[in-house]
Amino acid sequence: MQKSVVIVGGGAGKRMNSDIPKQFLLLKGKPMLMQTISRFLLYDPDIRLILVLPENYFPLWQDLCDQYQFHHKIQLVAGGKERFYSVKNALEYVSGLIAVHDAVRPLVSEMAIGKAFSLAAEKGNAVPVIPANESLRIQHEEGNQPLDRSKVLVVQTPQVFRYELLKEAYKQKFKPEFTDDATVVESLGHKIFTTDGNPENIKITTPMDMKLAELYLSDPRFD
Amino acid sequence: MQKSVVIVGGGAGKRMNSDIPKQFLLLKGKPMLMQTISRFLLYDPDIRLILVLPENYFPLWQDLCDQYQFHHKIQLVAGGKERFYSVKNALEYVSGLIAVHDAVRPLVSEMAIGKAFSLAAEKGNAVPVIPANESLRIQHEEGNQPLDRSKVLVVQTPQVFRYELLKEAYKQKFKPEFTDDATVVESLGHKIFTTDGNPENIKITTPMDMKLAELYLSDPRFD
Lengths: 223, 223
What we know:
The structure is a homodimer.
Chain A: E1 3-8, E2 26-27, E3 30-31, H1 32-43, E4 48-53, H2 58-67, E5 74-78, H3 83-90, E6 97-102, H4 110-123, E7 125-131, E8 136-140, E9 143-147, E10 152-155, E11 159-162, H5 163-169, H6 181-186, E12 194-196, H7 207-217
Parallel strand pairs in A: 1-4, 1-6, 4-5, 7-12
Antiparallel strand pairs in A: 2-3, 6-11, 7-10, 7-11, 8-9
Helix pairs in contact in A: 1-4
């Protein structure tokens, strides 16, 4: 079955005069986005690549591709005002099995990608998760109470879906509780299936995360 | 009010022939345990120090203190077979306000320590927490569902308590759901109060955590 990956790198309204978004920063000598895309090419050199970016960053991306001689066939798609609309915009370029992945997760392993595609082929959807490894509490109106962490799953990407399922799900009207693709699909009443993520697959949002990512990338497994 | 900190560094049954526990490893040129203890001395040079270790590691600790000229007045206490018994063993050496802290959390900030002591002085207990910054799901019998992460708190130490409260709580029989001191106190029906932890205050359990801790410690805030 045809495989596609939608790399979600931000929506509309991101101004060029603010800091350059993390996904363009250099990580081990290469823009993070290229590291992220390379993970999927390593998994399947024939995967279809769709990259969602704020439209005003298209020229920067093209310049970087020239500079780093990163010449893969990549469909650029303009981001929407919410992540929901960004993914929805990308759906007209895909078919078969669709992975949706955060641009700022360059440390996803080939194994995690492979497991998610395999499970989604079988069940229709697959969400990579890792165990929660810290003590947790949950707030309620009167205070807070312990949360059994053995039942808590930390959600990652790529979340993989059969095209028909994702397309149908994204016909819904946007709701604020759609925090990822799983919640959009779940809202149609579908059961979500989980698979093993990899612990290194952090979402890079702070300068310290960048340093941690450099550390991980210095590990031979990521060479 | 007299302040004490119980540094919990492991229980009975830890063999010398296995790997040296993380708390003795060097972190920025000093055994981790000394980094951890130093945080509390920075907060209050007069704080009473109680260190719970597996009894067979007492000689190693003494050697390290000589080697690193770490000569503070520290009460050594032998660990029990569960963390619960380790803390309980330490309680005969404390009074006033008691902080209980994981030995493998050397990155706690002075501010987090200070806030926890202040709140506990006022309310009787205080538990440092940070927000959950990842998407979460919760498992139940039929599958799993999204968990509103805005309501989830990640629990850290030091957890601080008034002596009488902690002493009373530790008269209970051990239950497996006693995963930290807050759960022991809560089991008596007391409400738990939360305060701001610091995000760097990770629990060091893996070699990668060690590297991350080195990164954090290279930050001027930790000098």
